[in-house]
Amino acid sequence: MLAHFLAITITGLGLLAPVNQRPLPTYEVARVTSPMKIDGQLNERAWQEVQSVGDFVNNRDGSVSNLKTEARVLYDEKYLYFGFRSVDQNIWATMKRRDEHLWLEEVVEVFLQANQTIPNYIELEVNPLGTMLDIYLLDTRKPLHYESWNSEKLRWAVHVDGTVDGKDGDREWTCEIALPLEDVATAVHIPPQPGDRWRMNLYRVERKPEVAELAWSPTLQDDFHVLPRLGEIIFTDRKVPKR
Fold first, then answer.
1. Structural domain contains residue 94
2. Domains in the chain, number
3. With 0-12 CB in 10 A as exposed, 13-18 as middle and 19+ as buried, what is 47?
4. What per-residue confidence (pLDDT) applies to 14?
5. The domain that contains 29 carries what CATH number?
6. Which residue segment(s) compose the domain that 89 sits in?
């Protein structure tokens, strides 16, 4: 009886609750009324009209990070748009060839799963040099060969306030990505309809001066590829002007 009472008490205090029960974040995606200019600078009015997705936290345990990271998402008839702002005093990357292993350096990442009943998902990574890694995965960590699938109409750009050499004195770097909706093959509707729900996660990897792996929805593991921990985006009929 005493053991049973203690188990109930501890559970009531949340001490036995699985750590992966941390709530998943959601974000409502507004529709931009005209195509976005992809130059990496985030200066279009549309980006200012919508809220950021919320804080990026340490992926392993969900703790607060002192690295400021912002992200926003928009859509139109043909594209899903992602905008990142990464405050960084020592921006660093060296890889310049598409589909290199960018996660080994500093990078921002998008994971997108349009249909929870089909385990396919898309992974996009961009580093401060403007290098892209785009992957189509059939299931968790089961990609098509990196160089066998490149999105033909994918657009992206970065803008760096500083130098990409890992030395102090930088301020931030920003990134824009326009993912063609036609690539999201598993979606029920293309373009998405208001009320449609997709799964998404956003990440940032920082290497200098210290390693940090940040997430919008922390996987609570030493792994980004945890599909049950993807957050959710909800497409809305709210319209925002580009300028």
1. yes
2. 1
3. buried
4. 38
5. 2.60.40.1190
6. 24-240
